[in-house]
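Sharing a chain and its predicted structure for anyone who wants a worked example. Both blocks are below, sequence first, tokens second.
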Amino acid sequence: MTVADQDGGVRERTERGLGNATVSLTECKQRRKSEPQLCAVLEEACMGEPNVDSFFSTRGLHLLHLNIRSLLPKINEIRLLSISNKVGLLCFTETWLDDSIKDAEIEIENYFLIRRDRNRKVASKLVEKLPDQSGQYGESHILDFYSQQEVKVDGFSFQKVSEAVVLERLKSLNISKATGFDNIPSRFLKDAAEVITPCITHIINLSIVQGHFPNDLKLARVIPLYKKGSKLDHGNYRPVSILCSLSKIIERIIYEQIDKYLASQNLLYEFQSGFRKSHSTDTCLLYLTDYIRRVRVVDKGNFCGMVMLDLQKAFDTVDHGILVRKLKAIGFNDLAVRWVRSFLKDRKQVVDIGGTISEPQSIDCGVPQGSVLGPLFFLLYINDLKSVCSCELFLYADDSALLVSHKDKSIVERTLSEELLKVSRWMSDNRLSLHLGKTEAILFGSKIKLKRSPGFKVLVGDHEISVKDSVSYLGCVLDCHLSGVGQAQKVLAKVNQRVRFLARISSFLDRKALLTLASALIQPYFDYACCSWYKGVLKHLKLRLQTAQNKVLRIILNLPMRSHLDISHFESIGWLKVEDRVSQIHLCMVHKIVHGVVPRYLINYFDRVRDVHRYSTRGSSTDFVPPRVKSNLGKESFLYVATSLWNRLPGDLKLAQQSQGRNAFLSWKFKQHFTLRKEKGEKNITVQCNLCLPATNLLSASKDSTSNLKKHLKLSCFFKPAIHSRVLQRAEMASDDGGERSAMPTIPPLKQATLSTSAITQKKVNSLVLEFIIADV
């Protein structure tokens, strides 16, 4: 074994058995140093005492048992345990400790045993480890919070449903979903909907009237899904809870009634983006990053500190008694509260592995996994968290972020520490476990200000929160400058990995299958939260992102890896380049804002021109007021980029229907940049370059003489030489085509654009059109 000397040296003592004799080898210096992190833990536990023996004799000897795989990922937690419990010896095992291993098997004489079993992560065990409730944020605090929102007592009750509503829910069942423990598939309920609707309607209404949820629908079937790593380790499986289809129908009807009441009373926290209609991680990240940029730009270079909270098994540790009291404070009447209490209690689950069913196990706390009402109940459970925060709070279900801004970094540190302490007390009173070891903090600011003010520190009592230069929130990497570099590198790593996979299987699949795989496995990485990070990425990283997309395109189209790509290749599969795709997503988000299908905080974020002044102009009804920014950081914000793109759109696209927005913007990105017109009664073809020339200057070319056009293309046009012949060819084709053509409205010129070729004739308009892609810079 390996032992540590008092002077810090490490020696190795071994014994080898030879038959019946035992030979003791001499002690020798070990060449390789021992694990420095383990020594640091013991050194910190000793608190720098020079005499280790006297230290342990006065403070006592403690033995801490841990699995060896817990050392590196949980070094901070082990360090805290070593200090708080006065650990004298750390003992690591290769197997996880559980209830089958008794204390007598692992304890050592004269040592106090401290063990951290695998099952200590179970929700009920986490609740047992929480400190006693202080009562500061108890029932009276909840009542005060909702009384300020003028909530009526017993203002909400469940209503009976009609057969038409139940029939609609039955026909909307997803037949691909797994079957619950009752073995009644969704297909059966959907096919027999018209026959069984009266019976199911009677069951639902009886449940509402009696305030009782059927016990037979409370049993869940849990299937472990393999994630990664060793298949022999149960920690590498994700448990998936499957409920009965009939249970989900009842829950869906109840959910709609509760959601309608919450929306009418505006009770849910505005910046809670989880499990809500029209809300997503994209909208949360978009507003969060714009808030940080706005704080640093508008307030003239403030610091902005952010702390991201980590909750352990938040959904599984919800206290049923506290949840019921909060529902009562929200306005649920006694019958509705009784129904919810019946829905939560006496739930059981069985584990199904290869058809083998375990014995049912009771669920004492938490909201039901896999249920429709579970996420909504959790949102209501943490809805009053904002009442203890005087800083900005952004939520996506249990992913919470606290933000504080000020010109003085010390004020940011002190305020965040105070707010985090209040939040930790609220968590304790609500029986939620805050994992301080995984809670992270970051300080946003300019490079100069951060360099001049090093050493950001956030404390919760005596515990110091880990401060990082780059953090991941909702799957998006945010660095202290909001440069987007970390997220771009993450996207490149993921995309290149999947490009290699796509290349290996490309010879076995046709184009359609490859396109489907690429759209499902690769394109989402480019799209995710791109409005929050892409515009701040450096030019060379944008080029690498485009190069990665080009690789995918060549694999789909079966082109040589060095072949040139133009817009016709992208158009053949209906893709846009990365830059244009980001612009399209910006426009789609603004289009949703116009139609009100986004969170309220985004709708209030944009100002219409018509709301600022009453002058009737062409764009007053559809345009937005652009923000005034001077710095590059402000120009990277979603508000600035999206407003600039939207105000340049043609009027008909701004008025597009809600369902037509994405396709309309896709077509517009492929819109013409050259306009070829043949005036009525004339033989000459008019060629207008909307980029290189003002809208009033036209170039005329005929079949016999195209010198002006050739001169323009050769000397001053931004088009690549490969496009020139295509333009001339189309001009000559137009001059050969007989008949009269009506003039087509010109497109206003853009300041900068990157052009590529695609010759498509629009049959719907009576003119010849060349369509090119516009890549706005």
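Comments welcome. The chain has five domains: 2-118, 152-266+320-364, 485-575, 581-667, 671-770.
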